[in-house]
């Protein structure tokens, strides 16, 4: 990375693995020990954090991706070219010889998909002294707990970011977090859960108790994406549901990434949390009507038109409170 990179005044740093997504289709997903026939479909550039980075960039948000890729690899060349084509800044990428190419296997079955991530076994990420100022001036760092733990001395890094008023947004799925990671998770300002990630953190406690613990430790916003049921958003002062719009589902890959980055984009624009939830729901909902991991990459104005179309009267008819 060239350490003389000049960051823009407001920008996001996304930390996470890029990968080549291998798409297959199947009639059903087998039970453990079973067998299913699959048809190879195609390869596409993916990775949950890079997908979100491309959505950010599509909205005009200056976005850097941090990852370590295999050096002198055709797949790496494809990944970097794709990132650049989507407007993502690649100056913080690292390259190393002795790591495998990043791969993800995606099996599509009718209305759902199953994702198998091939463990990349990447080295610890060292933040260079000449890079630190770029991180400290970011508006948000967007990542997963697992990816952030791959930074050497990650808790010191997180505390340094917090001391410089950088907001942290975590994408939390069951595969990207350990239940023992709460000390790290509660450093986050915005937490995005899918249902399985929230259940893993909640454990045997009630929903309200789990949220109370988050907010007592400094979390500002927690949102759970609920697929076709929409989303549920909580803050210290209120909770509300945002219902989904019924869509013809083509591919759900990247829908959560789209929701999360859309939500943060609206917060960056100074919009309210409720406006952010509406915008994110519309963006995530539209993304499932498109094939591929980057179906959520769209212009800001396009999604705002969808919000107007989906949620009339500024969305007031499409929101209902559970507690205010």
Question: Are there runs of 5+ residues with pLDDT below 50, and where?
Answer: 318-324
* Structural classification: alpha/beta
Question: Order of helices and strands, N to C?
Answer: EEEHEEHEEEHEHHEHEHHEEEHHHE
How are the strands ordered across the major sheet?
A: 4-1-9-10-11-12-13-14-15
* Number of DSSP E strands: 15
Average of per-residue pLDDT values: 89
Strand count, sense and closure of the main sheet?
A: 9 strands, mixed
Q: Specify the helix fraction band.
A: 25-40%
* General form: globular
Describe the structure.
The protein is of the alpha/beta class. It has helices at 48-58, 74-85, 132-136, 145-148, 154-163, 182-185, 195-202, 207-216, 255-268, 273-287, 300-310, and strands spanning 11-15, 19-26, 38-46, 62-66, 68-70, 94-96, 103-109, 112-117, 140-143, 167-172, 190-194, 221-225, 231-234, 239-242, 320-323. The strands form three sheets. Strands 4-1-9-10-11-12-13-14-15 form a nine-stranded mixed sheet, sandwiched between helices. Strand 10 (167-172), helix 6 and strand 11 form a beta-alpha-beta unit. Helix 10 crosses helix 11 (300-310). Residues 318-324 have low confidence and may be disordered. GO terms for molecular function: kinase activity. This is Carbohydrate kinase family protein. Keywords: Kinase, Transferase.
